[in-house]
From TrEMBL:
Name listed for the protein in its UniProt record: Transcriptional regulatory protein DpiA
Gene expressing this chain: dpiA
In-chain residues carrying the UniProt-annotated modification 4-aspartylphosphate: 57
Keyword Hydrolase: no
An annotated GO cellular component: cytoplasm
UniProt-listed Pfam families: Response_reg
GO molecular function per UniProt: DNA binding; phosphorelay response regulator activity
Keyword Transcription found: yes
Keyword set, alphabetical order: Activator, Cytoplasm, DNA-binding, Phosphoprotein, Transcription, Transcription regulation, Two-component regulatory system
Domain Response regulatory intervals: 6-122
Cellular localization per UniProt: Cytoplasm
Organism expressing this protein natively: Escherichia coli
Length: 161
């Protein structure tokens, strides 16, 4: 089972951010939903809470979301980003896709589409965790015989005088 996720919504229109959060609360798998109204708040929350998914608007009062996306890529941030912007900003959407965003949503965001994106994200995360778990089990199966041989050959009983 996939661990619950923290999601950060970076959106300067507070009523819109709250509507997104309310919708997401009804989707299983998201344990904590955080809101940031600008890039400074977003950076602080990313540092503090390490959200697994960031819903990132492009136009914010203190800069552009695409710049934060570049920072996250540069820092090899392990979480994913869903980029949101206006339909007229396709050049920025292309740039975001080249940066490796999980998905992009054109504003106004259709909640059915947001739900599909979040469901796909959870499915992919579950699949990755299953692969990681299987890889660890397989690695242990391979290592156990070697460890047993090592214990037999390298561990000698202590001589008690």
């Amino acid at each position: 089972m996939t661990a619950p996720l923290t999601l950060l919504i970076v959106e300067d229109e507070t009523p819109l951010a709250e509507m997104h959060a309310e919708y997401i609360r009804h989707i299983p798998g998201f344990s904590q939903i955080l809101l940031a109204g600008n890039l400074a708040q977003a950076r602080m929350m990313i540092e503090r809470f390490k959200p697994g998914l960031i819903l990132l608007d492009n136009y914010l009062p203190d800069g552009r979301g695409i710049n934060l996306l570049h920072e996250l890529v540069q820092a090899h941030y392990p979480g994913d980003v869903v980029f949101t912007t206006a339909a007229s900003d396709m050049e920025t959407v292309s740039e975001a896709v080249r940066c490796g965003v999980f998905d992009y949503l054109i504003k106004p965001i259709a909640y059915e589409r947001l739900g599909q994106t979040l469901t796909r994200f959870r499915q992919r995360k579950h699949m990755r965790e299953s692969i990681d778990s299987a890889s660890q089990k397989q690695m242990m199966r391979c290592l156990m015989p070697m460890l047993a041989v090592n214990l037999k050959t390298n561990c000698r009983p202590a001589l008690i005088p």
